[in-house]
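Worked Example 4.2. Consider the chain below.
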Amino acid sequence: MTPTRHPDDIDVQTFFDQHRISGLQWLIFGLCFLMVVLDGFDTAAIGYIAPSLIREWGVTKAAIAPVLSAALFGLAAGAFVAGPLADRLGRKRVLTVSVLVFGAACLASAHSRDLAELGVLRFITGLGLGAAMPTAVTLTSEYCPSQRRALLTNAMFCGFPLGAALGGFLAAWMIPHWGWRSVLELGGGAPLVLGLLMLALMPESVRYLVARGAPAERVSAVLQRISASAAGARRFVLAEARPESGARSGLGVVFSRDYRLGTLMLWLAYFMGLVIFYALINWMPVLLAEGGLTPERATLISALFPLGGVGAVFFGWLMDRFNANRIIALGFALTAVALYAIGQAVGNLGALVVVVFVAGTLMNTAQSSLPTLAAAFYPTSGRATGVAWMLGVGRLGGIAGSFLVAQLAAAHLGFGHIFAVVAVPGLIATAALLIKQAAHPESGTRRAGAGEVAAH
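Applying the procedure from the previous section yields the following structure tokens:
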């Protein structure tokens, strides 16, 4: 039963919507954006250093495949654990610990002595990465005004492909000068500094505090950093844009009748998107090098693929105004067409550069928009779990994508045939989002509050 609203009560989301974005909100956005950049850098780094590892350690592509995928297993495990923890213990605590874990493990992996040791440390790195990403998405979305939530959350999330692209450009420059270990040293040291900054500067999610019944004084202390008008509130309430399921846990919300089908379709779409992403981010440098390009040129062209993710900002703007499910579905459909085109452009360097960038823009824009879609789909009580489990299931797609290209290459498929196969998951993701839209037509647009919780 919804409590009686007092005139001095403040609805948290209405408070965000009625005030200009404050310095505190920009600080949260900036810290989470930097975290996602480093997440992209560390996730993609192993693919960029793979050719150097193969040469220096004298190993085969088949032998290095488990190392390429080790972090993906950790990413999945970290996401599955982090979501329920963030819904129970808080966003800030889980995010800060996650960043420190992946930074320390990545730094240690720079000093690996063999593939087995590197594989173990990449798995631990993945645990931290997998826990950090969904928690950052959740925290950012919960501090955004409704009318800019998709734009700002997508802008934050597009730091991932930017970080992955930055890793390619830096690897192409750093490896000839200082070796492949320097890439991992940079990827480990920077998150350790960022984690300490988060610990000192970042507040807990106000929406989480209200949903968990935190004292009004604690909520007021944070909101007064946005506007002094929060000082006189007797109570803070939270009108949810999506109906509460009545479940006692985040997992209960995600699998409840109201959310079950939408959950499965989000999982399928994200899974297929990461099949594409990791198939190409891990293997495109090797495939292009085998196609006749120098290792340096193959790495630079491959770095154009994740760089295209900056288009997520435009998709975020569209999602705040139109049906988000259909917009992202269109992005995946066009991705399938562009990926097929890459396979036809192998003999033309100029065309190859263009189609790799276009395909990366389309694919990463659609993929980067899915966490924002998931964050808007679930209520506060299950949001971190919903986003995290979508990312966790999706990481399994990344594992499948990494092994997919290895198997296709082992079967001696040509360049064009490999990219034709990799394009199919884009069509499957398109179908999944259209099914979600048919089952939950209200989930693709903003919707009035359906329930209310309060902090006293």
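The beta strands are 10-11, 236-240, 451-455. Confidence is low (pLDDT under 50) at residues 446-451. Compare this with Example 4.1 before moving on.
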